[in-house]
Amino acid sequence: MVQLQSFVFSPLQENTYVLYDETGEAVIIDPGCYEPHEKEALTGFIGQNELKPVKLLNTHAHIDHVLGNAFVKRTYGIELYLHPSDLPVLKSNQILAPHYGFRAYEEAEVDHWLEAGQIIDFGKAQLEVRFVPGHAPGHVAFVNHADRFVIGGDVLFRGSVGRTDFPLSDHNTLMNSIRTQLYTLPDDYTVYAGHMDPTTIGREKKTNPFVRM
């Protein structure tokens, strides 16, 4: 069974996730840690639970989701996975980061490209990669079917959806991604988003004011 620990990092209130199972192997998803105390919170949890991080995954490359990429790669000697369509977003952060107040931001090199349908393994667990562009051109979600949850990044929120007023964003593409890639999952799947509290597929299909089914 996969265990999940979330952290809320930076003034942008981004959700970082650590997933692990009984083997102790773990993946770190969207590390938004920037300040020293945030990095200590992440490493402290991993150390206290004697976890072994084996992969670093990004749902997408907006600045709040990648602030800790370089730190995590350096600390644990693990490799970064990102969808190739989000490389322009990642590269833009060198210019954008200071405007958000992140003057010490370090860009991390991507080691592996994600693709739709790919299976990410760690320990005894698996994550299915689903391509869900719209908020960002290379956005993906990670689905764990065994424990019935989704790490959805900034696609679908509790009562909301991801912004599409950024460069390379597109509202119609986002709506299509939600309908075809997330709303096709069973209603009881929990959605752990990049911001705010978790929700479920069924709740959003019934009540989300932006996209109902």
TrEMBL record:
Keywords linked to the UniProt accession: Hydrolase, Metal-binding, Zinc
Transmembrane segments: none
Pfam families named in the record: Lactamase_B
Occurrences of domain Metallo-beta-lactamase (ranges): 13-195
Needed cofactors: Zn(2+)
Domain of life: Bacteria
Protein name in UniProt: MBL fold metallo-hydrolase
Lineage: Bacteria, Pseudomonadati, Bacteroidota, Cytophagia, Cytophagales
InterPro entries attached to this UniProt entry: MBL_Glyoxalase_II, Metallo-B-lactamas, RibonucZ/Hydroxyglut_hydro
